[in-house]
Amino acid sequence: MIRGVMVRVRAARAARFCSAAALSGAVMLSATGCSPELRPLVAVYADERGTAHALLRSCDGDGRVRGPWLRGTAAPVTKDAATSGEERDPGPAASGVEQPWIGWEAPGLNRAADFPLFAPPSAWAAEPRGPQTLRPDHSYELTFADPDDSYVYNASVTFDAGRLAELTAGEVLTLRGTMTREAFEELAEESC
Question: Can you say whether the dihedral through the CA atoms of 164, 166, 171, 175 is positive or negative?
C-alpha cells in the first residue's frame, strides 16, 4: 500500500514538472514568436543645407509600408547636464504616463519614399503633431511596419540632431549605425 502511494506521488511530481516545463516553453515561444523582426529599412541624413531627410525601403513587391511615423520626445537629462547645474522636469515619463511627443504619423498603407523628414509625401495624409522642425533637446524615432502583417517585421531608426550633424556628405544613419547611402541600399535589399 505504501509503495503504491509512493509511486503515485512520484508520478504526480513528474507530471507537475513536465507540465511546468511545457508551460515555460510555450510562454517562451509565444513571447519570442510574437515580436516582429527589426529590419534596417529606414535611414536618415542631412543634406548640404542641413535639412533632415528620410529614406524608407519596403520588402513588399509593391513598395508599401504600414503606418510610418516620426516621434520626437524630450531627451532625458544627461550626466553632463546634471553636473552643470541645469535642472529639467523629468516630465510625465517618470510617472509612467506617456510622454508628449512631436512629429507626425501616417496611418494605413503608404508608398515607401525619400522625403524631407518633416514633410512626408502629401499622399500619406500625415497628421502632424507639434513643431515640425528638428529640435536639439529631443530624440527621435522613425519607424514603419510590414504592409501585410505588422507582426512580420518593423523598420526603425533612432537619432537626435547631434547624430545627424555628425554625418558627412554621402552618409546616412540606420539601425546598424552610420554608413554610405549605397551601403544602406544594399543592406535594405539583403534584409528582405
Answer: negative
Q: Tell me the C-alpha distance between 144 and 155, whole Å.
A: 5
Tens digits of residue pLDDT in 23-77: 444 334 444 557 889 999 999 999 999 999 999 999 988 899 999 999 999 977 5
Please tell me the distance from the alpha carbon of residue 78 to that of residue 84, in angstroms, as a whole number: 10
pTM of the model: 0.72
d(CA 26, CA 69): 33
d(CA 174, CA 140): 12
Task: Give the other-Cβ count within 10 Å of 183's Cβ.
Answer: 16
CB 103 within 8 A of CB 31: no
Residue whose C-alpha is closest to residue 69's, from 39, 122, 106: 106
Grid coordinates standing for 167? 554625418
